[in-house]
Amino acid sequence: MTNLWEIDLKSIKRSPYNSRKVNAKDPRTVQLADSIKAIGVLQPPTVRAKGKGYELVAGERRWCAAKVAGLESIEVLVRELTDRQACEICVTENLQREDLLPLEEAHGVALLLTDYAGDVRAVAAQLGRSVGWVARRSRLATLSDRWRELVANPESEASEMSAGQLELIARLAPAAQDQLIDGHGRPPWNLCNGSVSQTERYLAQLMREVKGAPWKADAPVLDIIACTDCMQRSTCVVGLFDDELEGDPPAGPLGRCLDAACWDRKLHAYIEEREAALRAKHGADLLLIGDRYRGALGDNVHDSNDYKAAKKADKDSRPALVVQGPGAGKMRWVAPQSWASGSSPAKGGKKTLKEKEAGLKKRRRLRALELIRVAVKELAPPLHLISLAATFGTSHRHETMWAWDEGKNKRLNSWDTYRTLVDRTAAVNADRRLWDAVAGVLCQRLMCNQVDEAWKDAASACKALELPAPEKYFAQAVEEISEPKAWAKERKELKKAKAEASRAAAKKKAVKA
After folding, report:
1. Of 60, 104, 105, 370, which is the active-site residue?
2. Helix, strand or coil for residue 432?
3. How far is the C-alpha of 510 from the C-alpha of 114, rounded, in Å?
4. Known catalytic residue: 60?
5. Per-position b or e across 290-318, b if 16+ CB within 10 A of its CB
6. Which of 64, 79, 100 is the last residue of a domain?
7. Which pTM was predicted?
8. Domain membership flag for residue 73
9. Residue 2: helix, strand or coil by DSSP?
10. Among the three residues 224, 239, 263, which one is the final residue of a domain in this structure?
11. pLDDT at 249
């Protein structure tokens, strides 16, 4: 049943299904208001009776423009609609807008999914979209509050991210999304400024295959829910991953974990439990090993690059628990590498004190390089970074920056952006952006496998950026990574052996004389 009625504008309320509120000062709204003054409303908005008044179902811009035009009443199409029908009409009309933002689309699609009890295929059929599109857009509604703030802030790099990139981030659990934001409230530069495929590769490291977990997927780890009972898995959301639509996903029936924070908590708890069990069995023979390129190693953790895979029966083999990097949580048998400290070990596989000291120096230099990278990233942008470079990029790395005109609600062109940077404090943000890019490249140079080469680069970087000399960071590393106490005894015995050998040689020489 439908009717055309003339009703009071004040009796019409906005629809809760409409995620976007029309701005009365928007030039398009003002232009429509002028048209309504001249020729009236050509297409009546659609409403339904709700409570003591009416709820707007379609035509919010026309309703808003009519108020701007000074009308007191408007002709509307009154329809009898259920909540589901009202939601379908409102969301479908919004999706036809060219200027609709991805998060606004996500809100509408999520509402439809609620009405359809989560049936993604039914909503896809209703909207005439693919199952994958509906799943990915609805997932955007789970974007964390911190990411929503970044996307809404025109000065943030996240505001320029495409819908495809934001959909990839929304795949993760909110806690895992927030882990991507650093202590300064900024997302990684290469996450925001790359392509959709680059963003996907960057995030792939945070989504681990559940079947590869060292713990049993169907059993809880301490007090944390079992993976099979957790809904933060890729296979729990139909259409979210294109490669899992065919029923035989590469990650297996358990899919991929979308909550990196939960995974890390489980891994930490499992490693503690596993270490206690292995320590009871192997005692002091048990090694803890990790990959130094995945972060700083603890005092009792050995570098996995110093060991090779071995069999239990092999000479010098020892049980080891991987606590960091690939294979974390798993136990294996290992033996020392022949090149572990940069020189060949002594006969019998036992390293000399000199070799041990070389290994310790290497570890300390690696830690000092980590400290220097942190210092570089925390530097204020050097004064020689200018707004032109921030706007247009350089011949070596081209990237155009955009500023936002809040009054006209649109992007500025390149030269207007440049003038904005020069005339306002936004220049500081431009320099910050360019510096983040440059700092990222510098820090990559300080992470190469050849420690000696990285150390030379560190000396040059510290001098150019007016940071303390690398020796200062090395001194801090020495404080953090102490020398084993047993080495003092070994050094004393070595000195004693040399003295005895010297006395024996002198005595032998005297006898011959």
Report:
1. 60
2. helix
3. 99
4. yes
5. bbbeeebbeeebbbbbbbeebeeeeeebb
6. 100
7. 0.47
8. yes
9. strand
10. 263
11. 46
